Amino acid sequence: MYVVIILSVxxxxxxxxxxxxxxxxxxxxxxxxxxxxxxxxxxFMTGFSRLPPDPFFDPKEFPELQALQDNWQxxxxxxxxxxxxxxxxxxxxxxGFNTFxxxxxxxxxxxxxxxxxxxxxxxxxxxxALLEKIPSVKAAMFAELPSGSYLGKHRDPYAGSIRYHLGxxxxxxxxCFIEVDQQRYSWRDGxxxxxxxxxVHWAHNNTDQTRIILFCDIERPMKWxxxxxxxxxxxxxxxxxxxxxxxxxxxxxxxxxIFKYGYAVHAKGREIKAENKRLYYIYKWILxxxxxxxxxxxxxx
Length: 301
Prior knowledge:
The chain is 42% helix and 20% strand. With 301 residues, it is α+β, with helices and mostly antiparallel strands. The protein has a six-stranded antiparallel sheet with strand order 1-8-5-10-3-2. It has a four-stranded antiparallel sheet with strand order 4-9-6-7, with no helix packed on it. It is globular and about 55 Å long. The chain crosses the membrane at residues 280-300.
């Protein structure tokens, strides 16, 4: 009975994630995607959300964020002083964005589902002061997309937040854009957008200028207080485990402490795939079957 329940939950989560929106990842990729494994949580978040099931939202519906847009030049100036600090992770300690670094994407964390990073408080105090006055901002960073960079199609794993982008230093050109569920937005200096990052999205900077934005996770507004409390708890106690440091003074979350070991397995898998693709997929499905077995065996005893 427990085995049936576990399998049912997994496949319901798989198809929920796969059919969310117009754009889809390949089913074989969605099968192993982190958005599938967070499917039960995400069904709760979207089911009890006060927001409509749309890819983009009007920032005017979130008036508390206006202070960021009003002070975008101040935020931009602090971001531009951090050119040596906005960078890729120096070791495999950023599970959430690890694949982005390969294509040139860079970041400087301001906060991640808990307190402000000490490095951010020291290096960009005015931006931090603005963010700390807005409780709905659960995570924030400066994000850089260099000229020619491309982020492939993907879903972010967690529906308890929505994504806020504020243009700071951008090409101000339609060839620098993000596309969310087949709807395209091009960044402009001083302008903001809000979107649901659990829809398939991708980005491309096809200009000769680097794009720098303020990137925030905004807590999804829920229909009832008890649902909002659960969203807050999950972010604080689970999502905070993906915290990644800017330097040695910042904390590394539990997820990222474990990630380096998983990354070593992934790196070995890439070597095998380069040598023998068929063997790679055999190993991949065997590992997945073992994982399912580990989950199910206690329920069968």
